[in-house]
Amino acid sequence: MSQKPPILFIHGAIIGPDSWNEMRASFEASGYPTSAPAWPHKDMSVRESREHPDKDLAKVGLEEIVAHYESIIKSMPIKPVLVGHSFGGLVVQILRSRGYGSAAVAIDSAPAKGVFSFYPSVVKGTQAGLRAWVLRKGVFLMTFEEFQYAFVNGLPESFQRAAYDAQVMYETARPFFQAAIKDFPGQNACKVDFGAHPEIPLLMTGGTHDHLCPEKMTHANWEKYSATTVRADYKVFDGATHWIMAQPETSTEVAAYIKDWLEV
Known about the structure:
By secondary structure, the chain is of the alpha/beta class. The protein has one domain: Rossmann fold, CATH 3.40.50. Helix content is 38%, strand content 12%. The protein contains 10 helices and 8 strands. Helix 1 links the parallel strand 1 and strand 2. Helix 1 packs across helix 10, helix 5 packs antiparallel against helix 6 and helix 5 crosses helix 8.
């Protein structure tokens, strides 16, 4: 039996590596080695983040996040499968276009440059980060009500509260600003070379109940690959919110689908 490739999980904004715990357990039970390194200056517990956020977190933008994971991948003896969620999904798209990874999965990805993103739910869901940038706060902590709308809309309130208390950390505002201005001339933090490295297959997903990265936006992002020779597949999960990677039952369905896709 051939050895299964390692899975490198890349988390999104607002949360940290522990958001992958359930999905990591599923992959490890199927024989995949996994790792989930934190973004720069977020390698701490939720409690530590809320009490003493790293003073350098405000300096972190998408370029720094991508460079951080580039360094990690270069140190790995085997090319990993890259799996990212939200901003982590955009990071995966960028890394794949630079030749990193044996395969790539972007779960409910933040939009690449050239993908329309000014939907009402996206504007509302990202306002905490944009407000922090405009007010020059640098970092911010999403409120429970903001998290309810952006990540866990429609799920039981007891689950919403537990997820918020266990997972939500201080975050840098810079990537939110970069995403908001991504289509201005000269702004390339969100730029993806969609046709590069066709030998690295890509799976993108959307969720029908996702406010922060609505399905129409993730589908439009996926369509950018249609004019290329990249094997780019797409799957939408019914009932999935932005908490898709840890949403009860849904996360199990997503993990199973990704494993089947990898093993085709």
